[in-house]
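Query structure, 113 tokens:
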């Protein structure tokens, strides 16, 4: 069993930055591919970024590549998402996921123009 708790969301103006964290409990964190998803109002949940269990492989949605950076600290059981040059279209609830099977409750990110 893995429990995930996201934090770091908030309101920011376009062009600003936020860093999300996802704290995980459970022994399998270091074995899981971790991912960030987001859901904008009225839209389906979409994949933002993922990172392999040891951090050697990352992937990004085209819409965030070059602006967002995913990382993890397995010693701290924590996943991160550094978001720079935020755009209004980045607004949504951001969720972390472990092994494609466990989900956090989400953290709201609001980017205003």
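Result returned for the query:
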């Amino acid at each position: 069993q893995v429990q995930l708790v996201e934090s770091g969301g908030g309101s920011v103006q376009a062009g600003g930055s936020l860093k999300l964290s996802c704290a995980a409990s459970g022994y399998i964190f270091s074995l899981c591919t971790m991912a960030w998803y987001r859901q904008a109002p009225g839209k389906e949940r979409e994949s933002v970024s993922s990172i392999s269990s040891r951090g050697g492989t990352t992937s990004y949605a085209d819409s965030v590549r070059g602006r967002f950076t995913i990382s993890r600290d397995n010693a701290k059981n924590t996943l991160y998402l550094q978001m720079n040059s935020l755009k209004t279209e980045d607004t949504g609830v951001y969720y972390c996921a472990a092994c494609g099977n466990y989900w956090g409750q989400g953290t709201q990110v609001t980017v205003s123009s």
